[in-house]
Design a protein that fits this description.
The chain contains 14 helices and 16 strands. The chain is α/β, with parallel strands linked by helices. The strands form 3 sheets. The chain has an 8-stranded parallel beta sheet with strand order 7-6-5-4-3-2-1-8. The longest helix has 22 residues, at 6-27. The structure holds alpha-D-galactopyranose. Homodimer. Keywords: Disulfide bond, Glycoprotein, Glycosidase, Hydrolase, Lipid metabolism, Lysosome, Signal. InterPro entries: Aldolase_TIM, GH, Glyco_hydro_27, Glyco_hydro_27/36_CS, Glyco_hydro_b, Melibiase/NAGA_C. Residues 326-412 form the Alpha galactosidase A C-terminal domain.
């Protein structure tokens, strides 16, 4: 509704002021999103990268965005080991909606593609011991042009809670200003909390903020459980490389923003699709673990190679991603196209990733001085080292003055875990 005439415009101002008072009262004193969720990064499956906005169920019944797709993924998540290793949220992205709201202004699912409705789908997903995620947008329209939540934050939050939704991905398209964007993200956070249902809040607020000014991550953390910072992931090495380069270039800002309850989100895992070589898939898995990233796969679990499945279900690597200390890792140094990333873990352990970014030639050797890791503390006075990726191998016992030799394929990664030992030779 556009407020143009005198009395209506005044009413608009009064409503705006009372909303502001409400927001200020509700946020004062809250320094982190107080919903108790995402104490470790969210794990699950999200349809976007693999299935995008495919709404043509006649032409493509098995790959269109429909309740059948999500039910099939839920069946497989529950029966083929995904749930056991921690993948829990089945998430719907854009293009699930009917083009119009219903007569009560509530969002509704496309009746052809979701004939049983979202409530039914969430019951189904819950019956498998999993959780359901949904998608909406802070502005007038979603990025693909479906109804946005602007002016409807409360009713949409209530609708999602009524349906039994457990996660909301809230996109940032079609917003008129950065103020509208920020107010909208805050409003939806409060509206979700007010429903009383536990709903993980996945934001894209900083991504849409960066073109205007550097986001205030302290503020974003107070409202969101994770937040996208950078453009959409594609099924390509170019895309993975760019995300890693952007993350390391901005790590001073990003790393300190992450911790239990709030995470940087470098976007979906595309492992198991078409664009990445085996070594590049290893790199994505290893670095998403180092970055404490949400692990939201976007692939077709009905058709996935056993190699990709084994990588995605690797319990040791998942344990690094889910480490309860919740500290995000960072790029320690880069030498001649070799990057060394490290991440502190609980129990004084460290994860170290050695990435070979050289795209010519064969495998390269790289020798790491253990004293250079973790500010000298990662292997002090000695440690056990296990190579987790690409192949799990116990490398043995090392003293802190010694060196460990790695050999890394082009665009691949060697992921190591160091566990302090008090015993010496
Ligand atoms: C934006 C988001 C993507 C996806 C699409 C859907 O581009 O960043 O992750 O949700 O919108 O339209």
């Amino acid at each position: 509704m556009r407020l143009t005439s005198g009395p209506l415009r005044r009413l608009g101002c009064v409503l705006a002021l009372s909303f502001r008072a409400l927001v200020l009262r509700e946020i004062s004193g809250a320094w982190a999103l107080d919903n108790g969720l995402a104490m470790t990064p969210t794990m699950g499956w999200l349809h976007w990268e693999r299935f995008m906005c495919n709404t043509d169920c006649e032409e493509d019944p098995d790959s269109c965005v429909s309740e059948k797709l999500f039910m099939q993924m839920a069946d497989i998540m529950a029966s083929e080991g995904w749930k056991e290793v921690g993948y829990e949220y089945i998430c719907i992205d854009d293009c699930w909606m009917a083009p119009q709201r219903d007569s009560k202004h509530r969002l509704q699912a496309d009746p052809k593609r979701f004939p049983s409705g979202i409530r039914h789908l969430s019951n189904y997903v819950h019956s498998k011991g999993l959780k359901l995620g949904i998608y909406a947008d802070v502005g007038e329209k979603t990025c693909a042009g479906y109804p946005g939540s602007l002016g409807h934050y409360n009713i949409d939050a209530e609708t999602f809670a009524d349906w039994g939704v457990d996660l909301l991905k809230f996109d940032g398209c079609y917003c008129d200003s950065v103020e509208e964007l920020a107010n909208g993200y805050k409003h939806m956070s409060l509206a979700l909390n007010k429903t009383g249902r536990s709903i993980v809040y996945s934001c894209e607020w900083p991504l849409y903020m960066w073109p205007f000014h550097k986001p205030n991550y302290t503020e974003i953390r107070r409202y969101c459980n994770h937040w996208r910072n950078f453009g959409d992931i594609y099924d390509s090495w170019q895309s993975i490389k760019t995300i890693l380069a952007w993350t390391s270039a901005n790590q001073q800002t990003l790393v300190r923003a992450a911790g239990p309850g709030g995470w940087n989100d470098p976007d979906m895992l595309v492992i198991g699709n078409f664009g990445l070589s085996w070594d590049q898939q290893v790199t994505q898995m290893a670095l998403w673990a180092i970055m404490a990233a949400p692990l939201l796969m976007s692939n077709d679990l009905r058709q996935i190679s056993s190699q990709a499945k084994t990588l995605l279900q690797d319990k040791d690597v998942i344990a690094i991603n889910q480490d309860p200390l919740g500290k995000q890792g960072y790029l320690l140094r880069k030498e001649d196209s070799i990057e060394i990333w490290e991440r502190p873990l609980s129990n004084l352990a460290w994860a170290v990733a050695v990435v070979n970014l050289q795209e010519i030639g064969g495998p390269r050797s790289y020798t790491i001085s253990l004293a250079s890791l973790g500010q000298g503390m990662a292997c002090n006075p000695a440690c056990h080292i296990t190579e987790l990726l690409p192949v799990k191998t116990k490398l043995g016992f090392y003293e802190w003055t010694s060196y460990v030799k790695t050999r890394i394929n082009p665009t691949g990664t060697v992921l190591l875990q160091l566990q302090i030992s008090q015993t010496t030779f």
